[in-house]
Design a protein that fits this description.
Elements (H helix, E strand, L loop, with lengths): L5 E4 L2 E9 L2 H9 L1 H5 L14 E6 L22 E11 L3 E5 L3 E9 L2 E9 L5 H22 L7 H16 L1
Antiparallel strand pairs: 1-2, 2-7, 3-4, 4-5, 5-6, 6-7
Length: 172
Amino acid sequence: MDKYGKLINDHTLYFERMLAGPIERVWEYLTDEKKRGLWFAGGSTDLIPKGEMKLIFHNSTLSPTPEPTPEKYKDFRDGFESIAIVLKAEPPHLLVLEWEGIVTFKLEEAGDKVKLTLTHENLKETKDARVGTLAGWHTHLDILVDLMNGREPEGFWSVHMKLEEEYEEKYF
C-alpha cells in the first residue's frame, strides 16, 4: 500500500490506509463530531441524505504541540468553517460527501484492521488546489492512523508543507 495519494486524473485523487479496528470505531472517527475533530475537522453531523456535516478546522492544534500557520495559509490561522452535504451514509461502510467536489470514504474489514479508501472527485483544476488537496488529505489521514494506533501525531503544518513539495515534484 503506497503511503502517497494517487492523482488518478486532473480531477480525482485516491488514498488507501490501514487502520486499527474494529470498523465501528473507524466509522466513529469519521462521523462523531469530537473524534473527527481530533484528526480532520469537528462539527455537527446529520447523516441523513442531504444532511449537513459542519466542518470546523483548527489544523494548528491537531497535535499536542501547536504549530504556527504558514504564511501561505495565513487566512486559516484562526481556523475556518465549511459545510459538507451528506450524499450517502451506510454505517459502518460508506460515507459520501459533497465538499470541494465529491469525497467518498469506504471502509472494509481486513482481519483486525480496517482498510479505508478515500476518493476525492471533481477537484479544482489548478495545480495549487490539487497539490494542497493531496497534501491536506495525506496529512489528515496520517494523523488518523496515528490516533487509531495510540501514537502521538506530528504537527499538521510541518508535515503538510513538506508533502506539498513532494506532491508537486511527483505530479507536476
